[in-house]
Amino acid sequence: MLKKRDNRDKEEVKSILSPELKVEGNIYAQGKVRIDGVVEGNVEGDFLIFGESAKVNGNIKAEKVIVMGNINGDIVAKEAQIKSSAKLKGSVDVKELSVEEGASVEGNLRCGEFTEREAQNSSLEKSSQ
Question: CA-CA 20 to 30 A from 64: which of 7, 24, 32, 113?
Fold first, then answer.
């Protein structure tokens, strides 16, 4: 079954962190962002692309994530694509996941409707406190 393309795929990249740049600290981004450099901290945003030269030591939270580089941390997203050049060490918690042949992944995985139920239960617990 062919999946309908997301309109976000067509939008242009709003910001780029080049391979020569290293960030120490957390990043919060809106729109489509590409990271090719080094990040020592967490990254949160709408649509995050980690290029082949990207190196991240921190957790990632986004609507959509594409990983081609090295990630040492957990990923929480609605959709994640792990490309063949990716090296990922950490837990992955997503609604939709694709992993290309050749990708290196080490960690726990939760995918599909389980993530929706967990998010709903988490919201209910917070609202009852």
Answer: 24
Q: Which two tokens stand for residue 46?
A: 């709408």
d(CA 9, CA 58): 24
- Per DSSP, 124 falls in state H
**pLDDT at res. 16:** 87
Half-sphere exposure of 75 (CA within 13 A, CB side): 35
**So what's the pLDDT on residue 11?**
74
- 101, 129, 100, 96: which is closest to 115 by C-alpha? 96
Work out the number of other CB atoms within 10 angstroms of the CB of residue 65.
25
Write the single-letter amino acid at 97.
Answer: L
